[in-house]
Amino acid sequence: xxxxxxxxxxxxxxxxxxxxxxxxxxxxxxxxxxxxxxxxxxxxxxxxxxxxxxxxxxxxxxxxxxxxxxxxxxxxxxxxxxxxxxxxxxxxxxxxxxxxxxxxxxxxxxxxxxxxxxxxxxxxxxxxxxxxxxxxxxxxxxxxxxxxxxx
Length: 151
Ligand SMILES: [Zn+2]
Prior knowledge:
There is one protein chain. This protein is α+β, with helices and mostly antiparallel strands. It is 22% helix and 40% strand. The termini are far apart.
């Protein structure tokens, strides 16, 4: 039997929707030190410091990857997700959110590990990765995620 990922990858390659994933990496901005989140106050007190533009990262690099995954309107899975996961863990699932199962690199078929806060563009709509869960722990064969609609 082929590995679970090999099976998942062939499904994504054949039936998956192509989307674009943007991951921003960089150096942690001093404004997040001690609180783990962007601080407009720190920037007001340190006007000469490099701007992180609200991202908490300076010297930012954006990597865009073409991916294939399965996407469902949350209306299909939302009630099930709302019943099984507490709001404290995943936040409130909105009807405009998208449930995603993936993810394969569209050109190589290699497994793509989702990162929190990645932006995913499906068609003309932009989403932020909101919650990620692994399908099978250890040898992860796929991941599902909730994407929050931005535009
Ligand atoms: Zn900053």
